[in-house]
Design brief:
CATH superfamily: MetI-like
Shape: globular
Order of helices and strands: HHHHHHHHHHHH
Number of strands: 0
Low-confidence stretches: 239-257
Number of domains: 1
CATH topology: MetI-like fold
Mean pLDDT: 84
Largest sheet: none
Number of helices: 12
Structural class: mainly alpha
């Protein structure tokens, strides 16, 4: 087999424009909205749970610290697909019995939320603990209690420091949403990867996977550049604005020169 035949075979396997043209409209109409709903909803819930875990992790209560530590170690240590299977298939029959719903979509959201909470909790904890202890001591010296001092002074500074890491975690969550296909979502609930997998299985061609990859790149690359910009902005700080009188003086000196 010569080079031309190899390139032709690769093109037919990965760049079948007809196969991609068939799958892309469904990815736009069904897959993309479901992927974004999974990622955004899980990100919001995971952020709230992660903040709770972070506060438990730095709590003075040893029981709360141990609970947060065990939860974080277990959820971070297990493979993501295993966590989704355990939650989705393990609790699925119970949820169906209680609610009568046959959709595994809420369980997919729950699994992604619980996984992201373990990572986001560590991000928040490291950010809060990076704030100088003098901030807390100074706030307490002004008469604030421990809770208000943490809530009003320490936690906001810690969150600001870890914003790039939080966006990175959201990028990872977008990609991990592709793993919920193992739960067998309904046709109207399937995300980008599941739709590509379905078309690839029926056509025997890998081009739908390539189309799915392009969708993920379109979602994640802008966020990656946003993280880089945000990180540079937080490191350098905003340039100080000159007062009108100072600005006029600088312009006057420049004109005299």
């Amino acid at each position: 087999m010569d080079l031309q035949e190899i390139l032709k075979q690769l093109g037919e396997t990965f760049l079948d424009w007809k196969a991609m043209g068939e799958v892309i409209p469904k990815m736009f109409a069904v897959g993309l909205p479901n992927t974004l709903v999974l990622a955004v909803t899980s990100g919001i819930i995971g952020t709230l749970l992660g903040m709770l875990l972070a506060l438990m992790g730095i709590s003075r209560n040893p029981v709360a610290r141990w609970i947060a530590r065990i939860y974080t170690d277990v959820l971070r240590g297990l493979p993501a697909v295993l966590t989704i299977l355990v939650i989705g298939l393990g609790f699925g029959p119970i949820i169906r019995h209680l609610t009568g719903s046959t959709s595994p979509y809420p369980l997919a959201v729950a699994a992604l939320s619980l996984m992201s909470a373990a990572y986001i909790g560590e991000i928040f904890r490291s950010g809060i603990q990076s704030v100088d202890k003098g901030q807390l001591e100074a706030t307490r010296a002004l008469g604030f209690g421990y809770g208000p001092a943490m809530r009003l002074v320490v936690v906001p500074q810690g969150v600001r420091r870890v914003l790039p890491a939080l966006v990175n975690q959201f990028i990872a969550l977008i990609k991990e949403s592709s793993l919920v296909f193992v739960l067998g979502l309904l046709a109207s609930e399937r995300e980008v990867f599941q739709i590509g997998k379905d078309f690839a299985s029926t056509s025997g061609n890998l081009s739908p996977y390539v189309a799915a990859g392009l969708f993920y790149l379109v979602m994640t690359i802008p966020l990656t550049h946003f993280v880089n910009w945000l990180d540079r902005r937080l490191r350098s700080g905003r340039p100080e604005k000159k007062e009108p009188d100072e600005a006029a003086a600088v312009v006057g000196k420049g004109a005299q020169a």
